Amino acid sequence: MIGSHALPKARNRLLRMLLALPAAAVAAAVVAACSSSATPSGTSSSGGSSAHVAAATVGLKTAKVGGVTVLTNAKGFTLYSFAPDTSTTSKCNGTCAQNWPPVKLATASGVKGAFATIKRSDGSTQLTFHGHPLYTFVGDKSPGQASGNGINAFGGLWHEAPASGGAAPAGSSSSGSGGGGNGY
Fold it and tell me: What is the pTM of this model?
């Protein structure tokens, strides 16, 4: 039987890890920015645009992660949404964005859904899927991981982005972190 202090200790360890990763986050953000700098065709991106970008999103694809088909970047890393975000505003900036790098413009081959863009507080553009701004997670060290799913960090819950555009089913991820995808 796991002691009552095991879960809080595990969460504290995870938070310490998140705070210790700024250098890695910066490197990941640079790599993400370099790998997704292409401009999609048909993108309408004025501040807070919710115009649909018909499958015009370089390198997005889908993969099965923990039994759920989720959106991934071109390298197979899981994409996430942040519960406090709105369809026009990202609430993840500064240190949060270093740990959860925003997905910039991309193209999706074979991925159908309501893609759009929003303007971030720093002036950059971020991709949205069905009204949810998309992010990667520096804690995912290899393709096919979803270690960020269900984490409560930076003021809200993080969920893997299902390819269906709906809410991730509860307990859907292989992350074992609990909270697994109760909507976004």
Answer: 0.63
